[in-house]
Design goal:
globular, 4-stranded antiparallel beta sheet, Peptidase_S8_subtilisin-like, Extracellular basic protease, Immunoglobulin-like, 7-stranded parallel beta sheet, protease, binds calcium ion, Rossmann fold, 10 helices, about 30% strand, alpha/beta, EC 3.4.21.-
C-alpha cells in the first residue's frame, strides 16, 4: 500500500498498527491557531481491503481542552477526514505537541503533532477611511489624525456597514495560486538579463529598493531587508498589534499570501552569483519592506503612508525611513482611475517629485488597466504580464495604460517544454522552511521592472522617473499585436539588455 507522504520537511507522523493493518496519517505536521480559534487537521485512514473498523478519536493535551468536530466513525475504505481542531480561548500562547489517539477494536495509534497557539487579538479592529479635509463626515466615523498625505484626514469606523456614499476601499495583492517546484529562471532570459549583466550587475553599486507589500521573512538567499510594519488594524495584521518596526510577515499570514512580499523582494534582490538558489535582477541592491498587507488585502490608508515613508517622507507616529529608496515596487491595486486630487494621485505625485521611480502591477483581471490604481496613476510605470511565449498572459490587464510587459508566467502551462510550470521561481517558504516556489501574476512581472529600474539607476543615478520610464519603454522589444489577443493592443516587452546598452 502506498504510504501518504508529507510534503516538504516535517515530523514523521505516520503510524501503523501491524496486526490488523489500519494505517493512520496526519497532516500538516505543524498547525497554527489563535487561542479561541481553530485549525484544520487532516486525518487519513487506510484499512486493508475488505476490512472495516469502528474508530474512536481522542485528543491528548497539553494544551487542555482541545476538541475535534468528530469522535467516532466507521472506516471500510481509505478515508480522508478534515477535522476542525478547536483551541479553547484561555489557552496560553506557545508551542505544544498534543496527540491524536486513533482507537479501534484491537488496537490504537498515537499520532503526535506540533501546534503553535498564538494570542487572539484583544485590540478592536475597524475600517480606515481617508477623507479630504472639509468633506462632510458621515455619522459613525471617528477622526483619528491628519494623514501623512497633506489635505486628507484619517477616520476610523469601529463596526457596522460603511456609511451611505462612502466606499470602504480595499486593495488586493496581485497574486495567483502557486505550486512549489524547482528552478528554471526562463523569465530572466526573456528580458535580456544575460546581456544586461554583461554591462552592469549592480554588485558594486548598492542602492535601496522599496516595496509596499505583505512583509518579508529571512531567507538564506537574501540579504537582510529593512523596513516597517504599517498594517494598522491589529485584527488584520497577524501580529496582534498595529504599526511597529518589524516588517516580518507572520508565518500564518504568509500561508495565505503565499509569502507574496518575500517572492516580490526575491525577484528583485535574491542573492546572485552565490552558488545557491536563484539569481535576482540586481546583484548589489538592498531592500526596504513597508508592510501594508496583513493578508491578501490591505487598506489604502496604510499603503499610501507606507509609500510616502519609503520615499523618505514623514508619517505621524513612525520614525523617518533611514534608508530612502530610489525605486518602489507596488504589486497590488484596487479599482480606481487615479483622478487628480484623489489620494493615490496626490501620493504618487509627491513621491515622483522626489525622483523616486514607481512601478506598479497592472492587475490580474483581464481588463483595461486604466480602471486600477495605483497602476493608472500618471508617471507610474504600469506592468502587464506575459507568458513563456511572450504572449499576454490570460489574466493580465492590458490597454494603452500598460507601459511595459514583463514575464508574469502561467503556472498551468509548460510552453517552453522544460518539464516545469511556466511560473516565476522566487524565494518562498514551504511548511515554514525557506525554499523556492513558482508564482504567477502581474505582481511578479512588476518587480522585474523595478529591479531593472534600480540597475539603470545604479549606472545613471541622475535619471528622473520620467526619463527612466521613457528609456525602458523606448528600448523595449515591440511584440506583434496578435500577442495581445484576444484584444489587439500594442505590447512592449521589457528588455534590460537594450535599456542598459549604448
Ligand atoms: Ca504590527
Ligand atoms: Ca542565489
Ligand atoms: Ca516550463
Amino acid at each position: 500500500m502506498q504510504r501518504f507522504v508529507l510534503l516538504g520537511l516535517g515530523l514523521a507522523l505516520a503510524g501503523c498498527a501491524g496486526e490488523r493493518g489500519l494505517e493512520a496519517f496526519l497532516e500538516p505536521p505543524r498547525l497554527v491557531a489563535d487561542a479561541g480559534g481553530s485549525a484544520a487537521l487532516r486525518l487519513r485512514l487506510n484499512p486493508p481491503p475488505g476490512a472495516s473498523f469502528a474508530v474512536r478519536l481522542a485528543l491528548e493535551g497539553p494544551p487542555e481542552g482541545l476538541s475535534l468536530g468528530q469522535e467516532a466513525l466507521e472506516v471500510a475504505y481509505p478515508t480522508s477526514l478534515d477535522l476542525p481542531l478547536r483551541v479553547p480561548p484561555e489557552t496560553p500562547a506557545g508551542d505544544y505537541t498534543p496527540a491524536l489517539w486513533v482507537r479501534w477494536g484491537r488496537g490504537e495509534l498515537r499520532l503526535g503533532f506540533a501546534l503553535r497557539v498564538v494570542r487572539a487579538c484583544a485590540a478592536a479592529g475597524g475600517a480606515t477611511y481617508l477623507l479630504r479635509e472639509g468633506t462632510s463626515v458621515p455619522a459613525g466615523l471617528e477622526r483619528v489624525r491628519p494623514s501623512a498625505l497633506p489635505g486628507f484626514d484619517l477616520y476610523r469606523l469601529r463596526e457596522g456597514p460603511a456609511p451611505a456614499g462612502l466606499r470602504h476601499r480595499r486593495l488586493r495583492l496581485f497574486r495567483q495560486p502557486n505550486d512549489p517546484l524547482y528552478p528554471r529562471q526562463w523569465y530572466l532570459r526573456a528580458i535580456g538579463m544575460e546581456q544586461a549583466w554583461d554591462t552592469e550587475t549592480g554588485a558594486e553599486k548598492p542602492i535601496w529598493i522599496g516595496a509596499v507589500d505583505s512583509g518579508v521573512l529571512p531567507h538564506p538567499d537574501l540579504e537582510g531587508v529593512e523596513g516597517y510594519d504599517f498594517v494598522s488594524d491589529p485584527q488584520a495584521a497577524g501580529d496582534c498589534d498595529g504599526r511597529d518596526p518589524d516588517p516580518s510577515e507572520p508565518l500564518q499570514k504568509g500561508e495565505t499570501t503565499g509569502f507574496h512580499g518575500t517572492q516580490v523582494i526575491g525577484l528583485m534582490l535574491a542573492r546572485s552569483d552565490n552558488q545557491r538558489g536563484i539569481a535576482g535582477v540586481h546583484w548589489g541592491a538592498r531592500g526596504v519592506m513597508a508592510r501594508a498587507f496583513g493578508g491578501s488585502e490591505g487598506e489604502d490608508a496604510d499603503a499610501i503612508e507606507a509609500l510616502l515613508w519609503l520615499a523618505g517622507l514623514p508619517v505621524p507616529g513612525v520614525p523617518l525611513n533611514p534608508y530612502p529608496v530610489r525605486a518602489i515596487n507596488l504589486s497590488f491595486g484596487g479599482e480606481g482611475s487615479c483622478p487628480p486630487g484623489s489620494p493615490w494621485y496626490e501620493a504618487t505625485q509627491r513621491v515622483l517629485a522626489l525622483g523616486v521611480v514607481l512601478v506598479a502591477a497592472a492587475g490580474n483581471q483581464n481588463r483595461p488597466a486604466e480602471g486600477f490604481e495605483p497602476a493608472s496613476c500618471p508617471g507610474v510605470v504600469a506592468v502587464g504580464a506575459t507568458d513563456a511565449l511572450n504572449r499576454r498572459a490570460s489574466y493580465s490587464n492590458y490597454g494603452p495604460r500598460v507601459d511595459l510587459y514583463a514575464p508574469g508566467g502561467a503556472l498551468s502551462r509548460d510552453d517552453d517544454n522544460d518539464g516545469q510550470p511556466d511560473g516565476l521561481l522566487s524565494l518562498g517558504f514551504a511548511q515554514g522552511a525557506p525554499g523556492y516556489v513558482y508564482a504567477q501574476g502581474t505582481s511578479f512581472a512588476a518587480p522585474l521592472v523595478s529591479g531593472a529600474a534600480a540597475l539603470l539607476l545604479s549606472r545613471e543615478p541622475g535619471l528622473s522617473p520620467a526619463g527612466l520610464a521613457e528609456r525602458l519603454r523606448s528600448r523595449a522589444q515591440p511584440l506583434p499585436p496578435e500577442n495581445c489577443a484576444p484584444q489587439a493592443c500594442e505590447m512592449r516587452l521589457l528588455d534590460v539588455g537594450r535599456a542598459l546598452g549604448p
